[in-house]
Amino acid sequence: MNNFECNNPVKVVFGKGVINRFPALIPEGSRIMVLYGGGSIKKNGIYEQVVAALQDYKVTEFSGIEPNPLYETCMKAVKVVEEQQVDFLLAVGGGSVIDATKFIASAVYYEGEPWDIVSKGGVISKVMPLGAVLTLAATGSEMNERAVISRASTSEKLSFASPLLFPQFAVMDPQVTYSLPAHQVANGVVDSFIHVIEQYLTYPANAKVQDYFAESLMKVIVEEGIKVLDNPSDYDIRANLMWAATNALNCWIGVGVPQDWSSHRLGYALTVQYGLDHAQTLAVVLPGVMEYMRKEKEAKILRLGETVFGITTGGTDERVTTTIQATENFFRQMGMKTRLSEYGISESAINALVEPVKQRGWKLGEHANIDWQAAREIFRLRL
Ligand code: NZQ
Ligand code: ZN
Question: What is the pTM of this model?
């Protein structure tokens, strides 16, 4: 196990009917901005609950944060924060709203061009405090220090992180996820599964706590993920999926172990260039990364096959192949497409898809050996 330091300070408030609990966690007298997306919270009763809980506070709203949130939209919110002298940000939504809120919280105090935070690793030294009311179980953003922001004018999608960006609290009522459309539920299941994979499916580091924890999270996500589409209002299934998704990306399983993240980085171009949802990109790319890296990842692929998919027979190569197939089959069971051709994307598109890797000189993966040429091979495997 590698050395590590970690400190996850997020207060989690989890369970049925907990939305009214958060005002106690916000400093008295705060001027709050409530941030949300395209309006789903107005159709499913979450908005009313939030507004009722905040009746004693001065509240400003900012709506219209889009999936894969844009820098351009965030900068509009920054202006309102300044005009209204807001001093606390409350994100009510999925990963996109929470990520946008993290960027806004950083941009408000950033000296210089805020896009540098995302594109040049600009150091964040002060942020506005933020809290999250989660409406979609997927990204773990409610309990982590990361965010992903896109910029329309340059067609970029990039991630950034800072220990200052952990929310003060995460309010999670699994009942709020009942109203999600089935494809968003599937997105959440697949995204959270692949968050575990990015931190687990590398090479052995004899980190038993992280490995067993990761394996149990994947088992929960596969077991409950397969059930949830037919049982959308089953509280226990939703609760298990929500808590699994949070734990899949809140530091714990990733400390002290090598990490990959190549599927995520390669997937961003599919979102920017073809509009695929974040999880849709991952379901296409990950089987390609597994295939391309099958030798380097062999020991962990065998463990994944055995512990999560029950694959115990056959020679080594055969078991690796069967495990890659089982992973892809799981995504298909969730109703996801797993091939570029299913999205009408052909070989001629691949050069543009690897352009961000080329331009930024990325060397991705746990061995830093996925450059743009390797990325091209990975995309070719997914045609
Ligand atoms: O905008 P509204 O109207 O709210 O609708 C949203 C949106 O259209 C809808 N939705 C959310 N909760 C709902 C609901 N509809 C009905 N009922 C509810 N309870 O779902 C749609 C998708 O929401 P979004 O927030 O975009 O989804 P998700 O949580 O999957 O977030 C995706 C974003 O997070 C980033 C992705 O790149 C993408 O930009 N990620 C962030 C990470 C992080 N911060 O750690 C890690 C991830 O790997 C990921 O990259
Ligand atoms: Zn993800």
Answer: 0.97
